[in-house]
Amino acid sequence: MLRKILFLFVCVFFLPTCSTAPKQQETITAKKNQAVEYTSYGNDYFNQGIYDKALQFFNLALWHNMAVDNEQGMVRSYNSIGNVYLAMNEYELANRYFIKAYELAKKMNDAVLLCLTVNSRGETYLKQRDFEKSKELFLEALKYEKRGVPKENLAVVYHNIGSVYKKIGKKKAAIKYIKKALDINLRLKRYEEVASNYYMLASIYSEQEHYKQAVQYAGLALDYDKKVENSLGIAKDFLALGLISRKSGDNPSAYEYFQKSYNVYWALVNIYQNMSILADLETIIHHLIQTAQELGFSKDVIAWKMKKTELDDIKRKVRKSVQQ
Asked: In order of start, what are the domains of the chain with their CATH numbers?
């Protein structure tokens, strides 16, 4: 009887606190879910090269994760923000966020997050052409392989190791690691990553002057980017096909591919007016002018030079709006 009385007393005394517990838990879950949603939006913008928008959403995700002390979410948010700065060639800022992510992952002793963050730090050194340091970090990331790291994460590391070997001229090793990544991504149906693997293989075979294989792999990259409607990837695949065709002496095909790449980039510029996309579009126009000259298309040369002037005007306006 005494036990029942005490139980009722405890329930009554703590009732206000207990009644708010589910609501509090609901708030925490809601913030975590909101962070995931913001991350998804950020990834979409990042994949399209719209880095300012990606940064906004990744920061929103970070703040929501911080609000509920979601350390795993914070690591991923720091890492995502670092990836944006890396894509913008802001190496110091990128490294700052990657180190924040790495230190928190290390404190948690989370193998999956450690693999992720060490790999990201390696990507920073790779872009800065410090191939020894980047390879060292990528190999370090692989050490977590047997601690439950998902295959898709390992595929990213394999791709990056392949990229290092490509840069230092070890083409056979590069192909070996890229194909290891490709096998995983095909098996998991990660088609955007598959496109990236094929794109890299096309680049390697083009450097070896194996143009038939290079065109084949660039074509496969294009197929998979179309499959996932990756507009920026499609534009880059058309550019790759143009460059390969031009290197092989097939200027008519190169000109057609450059035009297709231009059309996709031009559509993206009209949607987003992003400086990174504008820079890529300027490169395309440069190739179009050169190829048109070599083909003797004098009227096209004049038209593309006018497009270059138009593009310069757009760049000035966008730059001005960003500064404001």
From this structure: 231-324 (1.25.40.10)
Which of 284-313 are b and which e, b meaning 16 or more Cβ less than 10 Å from the residue's Cβ?
bbebbbbbbeeeebeebbeebeebeeebee
Is pLDDT of 192 > 70? yes
Q: Which 3-state string (H, E, C) describes 251-317?
A: HHHHHHHHHHHHHHHHHHHHHHCCHHHHHHHHHHHHHHHHHHHHHCCHHHHHHHHHHHHHHHHHHHH
User: What is the dihedral angle through the alpha carbons of 99, 101, 103, 106, rounded to the nearest 10 degrees?
Assistant: -130
Angle at the Cα of 74 (from 73 to 80), degrees rounded to 5? 90
Could you give the count of Cα atoms lying within 13 Å of 69 in the half-sphere of its Cβ? 2
pLDDT tens digits along 156-178: 999 999 999 999 999 999 999 99
